[in-house]
Amino acid sequence: QVQLVESGGGLVQAGGSLRLSCAASGTIISIHTMGWYRQAPEKQRELVAAITSGGSTKYADSVKGRFTISRDNAKNTVYLQMNSLKPEDTAVYYCNAYYTFTNYWGQGTQVTVSF
């Protein structure tokens, strides 16, 4: 059974930084495309960043240059380093693992950026 557990969310002032972690069990992340999504109140869930099994990365335009996704296969963990945070980054952030047409999701972690 695949489980993804996010951590690292919290309250931060605008301009600050947070690092989210996603620890996986029941699978090895090296075979998956791993991603971070977010969902703000009354908005659809959107892709923030993704990293393929080969290490290619993709970012939403709104976070390019501020967020960095990385993976540590030895720790079976994916990270999202978030710098220069803005109030519009406030959302619940979800970890995702994708492999052979199957998506796995974590429970989410709240990120709140104050003015």
Sheet with the most strands?
7 strands, mixed
Separate helix tally = 0
Protein structure class: mainly beta
H/E element sequence: EEEEEEEEEEE
What is the residue-mean pLDDT, rounded to a whole number?
A: 96
How big is the Rg?
13 Å
User: Shape, please?
Assistant: globular
Number of strands: 11
Query: What percentage of residues falls in helices of 4 or more residues?
Result: under 10%
State which percent range the strand residues make up. Answer: over 45%
**Distance separating the two termini:** 40 Å
Low-confidence stretches: none
Note the main attributes of this structure.
single chain; mainly beta; seven-stranded mixed beta sheet; 11 strands; 0% helix; globular
Structural notes for this entry:
- By secondary structure, the protein is mostly beta strands.
- The chain contains no helices and 11 strands.
- The protein has strands at 3-7, 10-13, 18-25, 33-39, 46-51, 57-59, 67-72, 77-82, 91-99, 102-105, 109-114.
- Strands 2, 4, 5, 6, 9, 10 and 11 form a 7-stranded mixed beta sheet that branches.
- Strand 9 and strand 10 form a beta hairpin.
- The radius of gyration is 13 Å and the shape is globular.
- 30% of the residues are buried.
- The mean pLDDT is 96.
